[in-house]
Design brief:
The structure holds 2 protein chains of 2 kinds.
Chain A lengths: L1 E2 L3 H13 L7 E2 L2 H10 L4 E5 L9 H12 L4 E6 L4 H10 L4 E5 L6 H12 L3 E3 L1 H9 L12 H11 L4 H8 L3 H15 L7 H13 L2
Parallel strand pairs in A: 1-2, 1-3, 3-4, 4-5, 5-6
Chain B lengths: L17 H23 L4 H23 L4 H24 L7 H7 L4 H13 L12 H20 L4 H4 L12 H11 L1 H20 L3 H27 L3 H5 L3 H10 L7 H32 L4 H32 L5 H13 L5 H13 L3 E6 L6 E6 L11 H6 L3 E7 L2 E9 L8 H51 L1 H21 L3 H28 L2 H6 L1 H11 L4 E6 L6 H22 L4 E7 L4 E8 L11 H12 L3 E6 L5 E8 L2
Parallel strand pairs in B: 5-6
Antiparallel strand pairs in B: 1-2, 1-4, 3-4, 6-7, 7-9, 8-9
Helix pairs in contact in B: 1-2, 1-3, 2-3, 2-12, 3-4, 3-5, 5-6, 5-9, 10-12, 13-14, 15-16, 15-18, 16-18, 18-19, 18-20, 19-20, 22-23, 23-24
The chains are: A alpha/beta, B alpha+beta.
């Protein structure tokens, strides 16, 4: 199910999603229309714009909250022209998984976008790599990231994007055991308490990365 | 020497101690008992004034020391009152018709202390109003006065030198030799009473000449009361050949003194004296003129008295108004002292305008008040129905509500309109002391002052209009930036993203149909497109970040910190959101300062602190620990913000020292 106030983009995406094997069950032009559609026929996942009528502010997040209350199993992918850390943190705090937050540009890489949508549909967390890269790039006064090896930093960035251990292993072409070792080492070095669920882990890592 | 009246003020006294209260109560009861018992013994006209003096001086003195426990003048009054109570009672006892036990001794006590009591009265007059002599040089004078008075009292105590005058019926208790010598001595010594009067009159005149502000008014109360009593005395002597009316009227002096010491209605004295002077002078002039014509002309020219009376009436009628004006001028000069001449007032006004715009209108109001002798001058600005205070004398916080011109007219004020090119811009209202009118000269100089002040009012109004206009321009610019950002977001950005989506699809398709070359070229085009959208995104964000409107300054600054390549410490302390244009300006200042710190300062950390000052301005401070030596001109982006800052009445300070970093501070008035 797709929601966006820009007709051209919405229809284009619906068509292309259909071409790459998704079934688009409905289209909406704003948040409340999307909530109504979900209430009538809950899909596996909704893809919605963040800024929509009437206020062009955070209508996408408001709609996502109502959808989560209405149909907890529906995954929500939020698309936006800008990705901001405070939105990501709010999503991680308010939603226990099954949520994605991506730059709109990401949709043009069809393969990666399709994979992200499927992961959200299965309850995973997806955070835009640009946002994570921005935080990892930041210099800090006494940078705790200096304590990490280059490989560990890559793992940290991928964790911040919501990748599970299994997904990390696939991405980095190593065994799940190796990944577990990296993750343990990172959490020890950074003095972080790993959450049981992925969104907790993403939240902890994002909050950590945001520190001065 | 120009004279500036001070508004009356009340002083607060510390609560008196229990012992003090007991002493006050004890004296009050004792004096009341003596006086009441004295009255109960009968009525003797020659002694009645002593009872009144005892009651009035004691009452006023005790009231003063109760309000100001350490007030010396108050205690002097109490002493005078108590001594008179004792003397009054003694005389009443001695004057009693039937014989009373110990009447000769009590009568004796009622007579001989008089010289010393008169010396105390002299001292209290010389020390008025604070109980302290005008200078230490007066101490020997007071000592001498007391020495003479004591000697006189001793003579009066030992020989019945003053008995005849008082007329005590009870026999004199002592019988010493040398009565004849004592009586001749006494006759000479009585001249000392005139000496005493001369001394305290001189002291009082010197004190009046030196006095400033409130003390002038306090002394005027005393002088007015003394003159009034002298008037009654003279009238009594002329009409009844008796000093008793004047003696019985003496209590007006302590009452006036008490009011003056405690500064009750201190300034009401001026119009009273002013009026009294005018009436007195006119009465004297008219009487003299009438007498001169009827008697003087009548003795030289034989004419019927009726005709002369008619002539005198005509002359008086014609001359009355010019004479009254002169008398009024004389009275004004005596009461209010020197007032600036029109030329002085205008010169002063011009000099004050040079001093700068801060409270210029308050100062203009003060000049006007001084020039025309007004007790209150208020400058109002605005249209007829919405006048607000922009300056006042005496100074006071401007009330929030506005008034209309007709309200002001109803308050019995003198009003002058402030107009410029035919448009009314405000009003100047004056209050004169009760019963005083605005003279023609005052009116003329006031007109000149009003036209000058009017220009200032108009200018300040225009400046304020300009500031408002500048603010509106900033607001409009922000709105325009937001609109462009929205348009980009809803238009170009969407189209480009949609185009990227299509290119992605085409690339997939090319790969699927086995044309890797085409797929490659399309992927290239898509990468370039993504670059373009990224640039457009940053451009749109820089125009006006939507997060600023949606989530406020703190969150917007956090997103700046997230993007900054230099570590940023944020310290935002805002209880409420400032106006949109203030938020936006603060955001742009921080954004530019961060860019500058990242590019030129070689800073390790930048601290951004935002807080509201006590005056309600937004204080934006960005400090780095870099190499320093930045200047406003070199902080390029900030230079670009200077117009915006100026339009909002903001200040921008850049402090930078080599090696100790740069601090950029902007204070944005939120009002």
């Amino acid at each position: 199910m797709v929601a966006d106030d820009a007709v051209l983009f919405r229809e284009g995406m619906a068509r292309i999603l259909a071409e790459i094997g998704f079934e688009v069950t409905g289209q909406a032009r704003d948040g409340s229309a999307l909530v109504d559609l979900v209430a009538a026929d809950p899909p596996d996942v909704v893809i919605t714009d963040l800024r929509m009528p009437p206020g062009f502010a955070n209508e996408g997040i408001e709609a996502a909250s109502r959808i989560r209350a209405l149909a907890p199993r529906v995954g929500v992918v939020l698309l936006s022209q800008y990705v901001e850390v405070h939105h990501a943190l709010r999503l991680m705090e308010d939603f226990s998984g099954g949520v994605g937050y991506l730059l709109k540009d990401r949709v043009s890489d069809l393969g990666a976008f399709a994979a992200d949508v499927r992961r959200v549909a299965t309850g995973d967390v997806v955070i835009d790599p640009e946002l994570v890269a921005r935080l990892v790039r930041r210099r800090r006064e006494r940078d705790p990231l200096d304590a990490l090896s280059e490989r560990e930093r890559d793992v940290l960035a991928l964790m911040a994007r919501g990748l599970s251990n299994a997904a990390l292993a696939d991405e980095l072409f190593v065994s799940a055991k190796t990944i577990e070792g990296y993750v343990r080492s990172i959490f020890t070095k950074l003095d972080l308490a790993p959450g049981e669920r992925e969104h907790r882990r993403v939240l902890a890592v994002l909050q950590f990365l945001r520190r001065e | 020497m120009s004279f500036m009246p001070e508004p009356p003020r009340r002083e607060r006294a510390a609560p008196p101690s229990l012992g003090h209260e007991a002493a006050v109560a004890g004296i009050a009861v004792a004096v009341a008992a003596l006086v009441a018992w004295g009255w109960a013994l009968g009525f003797h006209l020659g002694n009645a004034h002593n009872g009144l003096i005892a009651a009035s001086w004691t009452a006023v003195g005790l009231y003063v020391v109760r309000m100001r426990p350490r007030h010396r003048e108050g205690w002097l009054f109490v002493t005078i009152g108590a001594a008179h109570a004792v003397m009054f009672f003694g005389r009443q006892y001695g004057l009693h018709d039937g014989p009373l036990p110990a009447a000769s001794w009590l009568g004796w006590i009622g007579v001989w202390p008089l010289p010393v009591v008169i010396a105390v009265v002299g001292w209290s007059l010389m020390a008025f109003p604070d109980g302290i002599l005008p200078s230490t040089a007066w101490r020997p004078v007071v000592w001498s006065m007391f020495a003479i008075a004591t000697a006189m009292a001793a003579v009066s105590a030992l020989w019945p030198v003053d008995y005849l005058r008082v007329g005590i019926g009870a026999p004199y208790p002592l019988h010493l030799a040398g009565r004849g010598t004592a009586e001749s001595l006494w006759g000479a010594a009585q001249a000392c009473y005139f000496l005493f009067q001369l001394v305290w009159t001189v002291a009082l005149v010197i004190r009046i000449r030196r006095a400033r502000g409130d003390e002038v008014r306090q002394l005027r109360w005393l002088v007015a009361a003394v003159l009034l009593d002298i008037g009654v005395l003279v009238t009594g002597l002329v009409l009844f050949g008796s000093p008793e009316p004047g003696l019985l009227a003496l209590p007006v002096i302590p009452l006036a003194c008490g009011a003056a010491i405690l500064k009750r209605r201190l300034y009401d004295i001026d119009p009273v004296i002013n009026r009294a002077l005018v009436v007195g002078v006119m009465f004297a002039l008219v009487t003299a003129g009438y007498a001169a014509i009827v008697l003087g002309v009548g003795s030289m020219v034989p004419a019927p008295t009726t005709a002369l009376s008619l002539l005198a009436t005509a002359v008086v009628a014609v001359a009355f108004e010019p004479l009254r004006r002169e008398a009024q001028r004389l009275a004004d000069r005596l009461v209010y002292g020197h007032r600036p001449t029109p030329y002085e007032a205008l010169a002063q006004m011009a000099a004050e305008a040079e001093l700068g715009p801060d409270d210029i209108l308050d100062r203009a109001a003060a000049t006007m008040a001084r020039t025309v002798g007004a007790t209150e001058v208020v400058l109002w600005s605005g249209p007829e129905r919405q006048l607000e205070v922009v300056g006042a004398w005496p100074r006071r916080p401007a009330p929030a509500e506005t008034v209309s011109l007709s309200d002001l007219a109803d308050r019995g004020l003198h009003l002058r309109l402030v107009s410029h090119q035919g448009t009314m811009h405000g009003v100047i209202s004056l209050r004169k002391p009760a019963g005083e009118v605005l003279t023609a000269t005052e009116g003329k100089v006031l007109t000149d002052l009003v036209s000058q002040t009017g220009l200032v009012v108009v200018q300040l109004q225009q400046a304020s209009d300009l500031r408002a206009a500048a603010r509106r321009i900033v607001t409009a610019e922000d709105a325009a930036r937001r609109r462009i950002e929205r348009d980009l977001h809803d238009g170009a950005q969407h189209r480009l993203v949609t185009l990227g989506l299509e290119l992605g699809a085409v690339s997939e398709h090319a790969r699927a149909i086995g044309d890797p070359d085409l797929a490659e070229r399309v992927a290239d085009a898509r990468a370039q497109l993504l670059q373009a959208t990224a640039e457009l995104r940053e451009l749109a964000r820089g125009l006006h970040p939507s997060v600023l409107v949606d989530a406020g300054l703190a969150v917007a600054l956090a997103t700046l910190a997230d993007r900054s390549s230099v570590p940023v410490r944020l310290d935002v302390d805002l209880a409420e959101r400032p106006a949109a244009e203030i938020e936006a300006t603060a955001y742009f200042v921080v954004s530019e300062a961060l860019t500058n710190a990242a590019r030129h300062a070689q800073a390790k950390v930048v601290t951004v602190s935002i807080s509201l000052t006590t005056t309600g301005s937004l204080d934006v401070r960005v400090s780095d620990d870099g190499i320093g030596c930045a200047r406003v001109e070199r902080v390029g982006g900030l230079q670009g913000l200077s117009d915006r800052l100026a339009a909002l009445g903001a200040r921008l300070e850049v402090t930078s020292k080599p090696g100790s970093g740069t601090t950029i501070r902007a204070v944005l008035p939120c009002g």
